[in-house]
Amino acid sequence: MTTVDMNMQILIVDDYKTMLRIIRNLLKQLGFNNVDEATDGSSALQKLRDKKYGLVISDWNMEPMSGLQLLKEVRADSRLNGLPFIMVTAESKSENVVAAKQAGVTNYIIKPFNAATLKTKLTASIGQF
Amino acid sequence: MPARKPTSKTGSRPQQGDDAVRAQLERTLHELSNMGPRSEPSEVVAAVESVMATVQGDLSAVNLKLYAEIEALSRYIANAKAEIAQVRPDEIRTTHLPTATDELEAIVGSTEAATNQIFEAVEGIEEIAGALDEATAQKLTDHVTKVYEACSFQDITGQRITKVVKALQEIEQKVDTLLAAFGEEAAQARAEREAPQEKTPESPADADRGLMNGPASPGEESVSQDDIDALLASFD
């Protein structure tokens, strides 16, 4: 039985349009069709404050606001701090993972990733679907 | 510029004067040493001459040794400057680095365009899959998923190339520093290179290398397949 709202709005954040398209298409295959996009942390934060989202999937390495900074802003905002936040990044050093965990990341996916990994991390972050 | 040796003077000097000369020479050497390769050979010579002008009487063995060392230092600086000028740091700054950066950015642009074309194709396949029976559609979707996964190469290579571009920008800054110190010598070396010279015959290998420029960068002159076909046809 599905416990997840498959109509939830998901925000994906990446400065590479290719990656936005990949994630959007993979989410669509998994049944999530309400996907919105942002190309850096600050525009993503604005969207999050303007609209209700059920999940954020964000890259780390972006200008002017990085994914880590976005995560910190989300966790510091009382209206957003419970939002599931998945970091999808090529930053694979343990110090990065630790920094993201300390900032409150829900899950962490290393690029390049496959669809199975994305599904596993989604399930771990928002529940079985 | 060769250093002039001071004229020897007759008569003996008091020990105190000898010490003062030595101390001054050591100070001058220290200052020149701190300046590193930026110091001008003429400055070294002038400093030595200034010190030697104060000498009263015959030069001691220590003075002569110091003088020889300063002269050697002067030659070393002159040679270092000439060698750095031959490295052509101005060309690195004006030609090589911008070309490398442009080429790398073109790679990112090309791979992004190609990836978008792949997306267009597989999204079309996904639409077709929707009209097929469930088992066939699932097979098609599985393959399409693999294509999406593989396309993440564009993001990864893009990030790697961005790192290389940043490294090139760092090098550019270092070269700028080098040019600030040796700009005059580099300009002189360039003028010498650009002066009309007797043309040496080009070897077949050189001629071939001159034709190997790789794909045209954005903004560079390039021709279409139609242009090529027309050109080939013109030989018939």
Entry summary:
The complex is a heterodimer of chains A (129) and B (236). Chain A is α/β, with parallel strands linked by helices.
Task: Draw up the topology in text.
The complex is a heterodimer of chains A (129) and B (236).
Chain A: E1 10-13, H1 17-29, E2 35-38, H2 41-50, E3 55-58, H3 67-76, E4 85-89, H4 94-103, E5 107-110, H5 115-126
Parallel strand pairs in A: 1-2, 1-3, 3-4, 4-5
Chain B: H1 15-35, H2 41-52, H3 61-86, H4 89-129, H5 134-150, H6 153-194, H7 204-211, H8 225-233
Helix pairs in contact in B: 1-2, 1-3, 2-3, 3-6, 4-5, 4-6
Describe the protein's architecture and organization.
The complex is a heterodimer of chains A (129) and B (236). Chain A contains 5 helices and 5 strands. Chain A has 129 residues and is α/β, with parallel strands linked by helices. The longest helix of chain A has 13 residues, at 17-29. The radius of gyration of chain A is 13 Å and the shape is globular. The model of chain A has no long low-confidence stretch (mean pLDDT 94). Residues 1-13 of chain B have low confidence and may be disordered. In chain B, α4 packs antiparallel against α5 and α4 (89-129) packs antiparallel against α6. Chain B has 236 residues and is mostly helical. Chain B is elongated and about 105 Å long. Classes of the chains: A alpha/beta (129), B mainly alpha (236). Chain A binds chain B through residues 14, 16-19, 21-22, 25-26, 29, 61, 90, 111-115, and chain B through 112, 115-116, 119, 123, 126, 141, 144-145, 148-149, 151-156, 158-159.
How would you describe this structure in keywords?
heterodimer; A: 129 residues; alpha/beta; 5-stranded parallel β-sheet; B: 236 residues; 8 helices; 75% helix; 0% strand; disordered N terminus
Q: What portion of residues of chain A belong to β-strands?
A: 15-25%
Query: Number of DSSP strands of chain A?
Result: 5
End-to-end Cα distance of chain B, whole Å, is: 64 Å
Strand content of chain B: under 5%
Overall morphology of chain B: elongated
Alpha plus pi helix count of chain B = 8
Provide the gyration radius of chain A in Å.
Answer: 13 Å
Tell me the series of helices and strands of chain B, N- to C-terminal.
HHHHHHHH
Helix fraction of chain B by DSSP (H/I, runs of at least 4): over 70%
- Strands of the widest sheet of chain A, in order across it, are 2-1-3-4-5
Task: State the low-pLDDT regions of chain A, or none.
Answer: none
